[in-house]
Specification:
Blueprint: E1 2-5, E2 8-11, E3 50-54, E4 60-62, E5 90-92, E6 98-102, H1 121-125
Antiparallel strand pairs: 1-2, 3-6, 4-5
């Protein structure tokens, strides 16, 4: 389709792609548990998020240190005193049963949910725990 504007032909774009981010879900456990306020992030585990169906009202323990073998969830690796890991897992409870994108780079500002931080240059340049 061609749009004619004062003798200049400009192709009409029929598809529009929006770059707006989806709404970040809410962790209802934040009201009573403050682990999401830890001052540091863990190591980059992966540079892409993990899609997971979470059940409403169920408690999950999301790994913040980035060293768990059961990513994106905690397996207790942070308790190993020899590793000297400062980060603790973040307790997560959602209001709605559905699929959620959980952060695997561990750098999100909306723990545990992906906010696109994995697309930043610092994260892309970082060495991740898993092979790319």
């Amino acid at each position: 389709m061609i749009l004619n504007i004062t003798k200049t032909k400009i192709p009409l774009i029929t598809k529009v792609f929006y770059s707006s981010s989806p709404k970040i879900p809410i962790n209802i456990a934040e009201k009573t548990i403050s682990a999401h306020n830890q001052p540091t992030n863990g190591v980059v585990y992966d540079k892409k998020p993990f899609k997971f169906t979470m059940q409403a009202g169920k408690r999950y323990s999301w790994c913040l240190c980035g060293r768990s073998k059961t990513q994106p969830f905690c397996d207790g690796t942070h308790r190993n005193a020899q590793l000297k890991i400062e980060q603790k897992p973040v307790t997560v409870v959602v209001e709605e049963t559905k699929e959620y994108w959980l952060c695997n780079c561990k750098q999100t500002k909306h723990r545990p949910f992906c906010d696109g931080t994995h697309k930043l240059k610092e994260v892309l340049d970082a060495t991740s725990i898993i092979r790319q």
